[in-house]
Each structure stands twice: as structure tokens, then as C-alpha cells.
Amino acid sequence: MKVAFFYVFYFLLNTTASMGQDKVDCIKLSQELLYAVKTGEPADAAEASLAAISSEELQNQLTSDAKRKSFWLNIYNAFTQLQLKRDPGSYLKRGKF
Asked: In this structure, what is the dihedral angle of CA atoms 37, 39, 43, 49, given to the nearest 10 degrees?
């Protein structure tokens, strides 16, 4: 439990410190979410941080095709893996998944 708390604290500290108090680096956050999901680390803090990002902030940060592609591929892959971990049976219905 202490390890999970430390990870969440470290994660939040790094994501907010990277761009100042009020801004979060969207691409870095998407990378950290994907890494957490792949390694089995807690991803709740990353999910909450992503949910708090406004569409205007995303638009301001994702200024090129490469940045948009990187962000959305990371998000897609992370949330697909999260969904499969939460409900492994959902993949059995591939057409609906």
C-alpha cells in the first residue's frame, strides 16, 4: 500500500512540476498512463488527471499531427488495456469491443 501511495504522489508531483502549477503536460501524462498500465502500476491518478484536462488545454498543447498522434495512440492503447484488465471477457465479443 505504501508503494502505491508513493507512486501516486511521485506521479502527481512530476506531472504538475513539468509545466508549472496549473498545467499538465498532456503527452507526458499519456505516456505515463500507458507505462503504468503496461507495468501493472496504479493508473487511477493518471486517469483522474486526464479527466481534468479541458479540451482547450488539449488543443493548445497538441499543436502538430505528431503530438496528436502520440497522445491519442497512448490513450487508446492504455484504455484498451485497462478495459481488458477490468473485464477480460469483453474481448470474447471482439465485434462489440
From this structure: -80
Of 12-26, 31-45, 49-63, the one with minimum mean pLDDT is 12-26
Q: CB-side exposure of 97: number of CA atoms within 13 Å?
A: 15
The set of cell numbers assigned to 57 is 488545454
User: Rounded mean pLDDT of the chain?
Assistant: 80
Distance between CA atoms of residues 27 and 25, nearest Å: 6
- Grid cell at residue 69: 498522434
Instruction: Tell me how far the alpha carbon of residue 72 is from its chain's centroid.
Output: 10
pTM of the model: 0.69
